[in-house]
Amino acid sequence: MAGSANLNVMMQTARKAGRSLLKDFGEVEQLQVSAKGPGDFVSRADKRAEEIIRDDLMAARPSYGFLGEEGSVIEGEDPTRRWIVDPLDGTTNFLHGLPHWAVSIALEHKGQIVAGVIYDPVKDEMFHAEKGNGAFVNESRIRVSARHRMIEAIFATGLPWAGRPDLPETLQDLARLLPATAGVRRFGAASLDLAYVAAGRYEGFWERGLNAWDVAAGIVIVKEAGGLLEALDPAENPVTSGALICANEAIFNSFAKVIRKA
Fold first, then answer.
1. Are strands 102-109 and 81-89 parallel, antiparallel or unpaired?
2. How does DSSP classify residue 121?
């Protein structure tokens, strides 16, 4: 599938960063790790991947802004366009040798996410979408699941760790949701959770405590795959709210009613 010049740059850059990460993943036991917070670790591989992405994207589009998880913030000459990047989503998986992590790159234009790429180097799956042009994994078009009964549906979420304040809410969510569904999964990479909803592998996803770089690319991919996506508080912007919910259209209202229940 031929994409725009911007999307092609995003995919090429994601692959380049992915190759660097794969090399380090093969030597994960030797990586030097510094604590960034309880349960939240950052490696040299993570920082190096962000440098690769930042340098390549800024070389291709020097006027755009840049927001990266590892601290890279660039105010571009063009205030309407900004890259939003997570160089390694699933850092804890990566550091434990679990092969489920991704590179996430989004392009924001006038406050809207207009293109997104989520690349899983281990499986060589490139999820990508541009606003108005559909969603794909590699060369294949993807759509959200067609399941319409909650009892047949699988959902994904993140589970709070090490004193995160949203633990009580998440436990309440699970107590309400689990009896009504085919199951809940926690794989540890929000970007891939969103990509999997877009590909019909899950029926829905919700999580609190998220950052813009965790979800930006996934938002446009889910929407272009036919999914519904909102902030948990529907009045907020899902990119910046820190909490979102998404599902296929048939299940969304039932799912949202369970999760949003006071």
1. antiparallel
2. T
pTM, 2 dp = 0.93
- Give me the residues paired with residue 35 across strands: 41
Share of the chain above pLDDT 70, in %: 93
Q: Cα separations (Å) of 242 from 3, 43, 186, 204, 206?
A: 29, 24, 18, 17, 11
Whether 38 and 44 have beta carbons less than 8 Å apart is answered as: no
Q: Which domains are assigned to the chain?
A: 5-141 (3.30.540.10), 150-259 (3.40.190.80)
Distances in whole angstroms, Cα of residue 253 to Cα of each of 27, 127, 153, 195, 257: 45, 26, 13, 20, 6
Q: How far apart are CA 3 and CA 26, in angstroms?
A: 32
Which pLDDT tens digit goes with each residue over 164-208? 788 889 999 999 999 999 999 999 999 999 999 999 999 999 999
DSSP state of 25: H
Confidence of residue 40 (pLDDT cuts 50, 70, 90): very low
| H helix or E strand, kind and range, residue 204 | strand 204-207
With residue 159 as reference, give the H or E element that holds it: none
Q: At what angle do helices 190-198 and 212-224 cross, to 10 degrees?
A: 0
| Predicted confidence band of residue 35 (pLDDT cuts 50, 70, 90) | low
What is d(CA 48, CA 70) in angstroms, rounded to the nearest whole number?
10
Residue of 130, 184, 182, 133 lying closest to 155 (CA atoms): 184
The residue length of the chain stands at 262
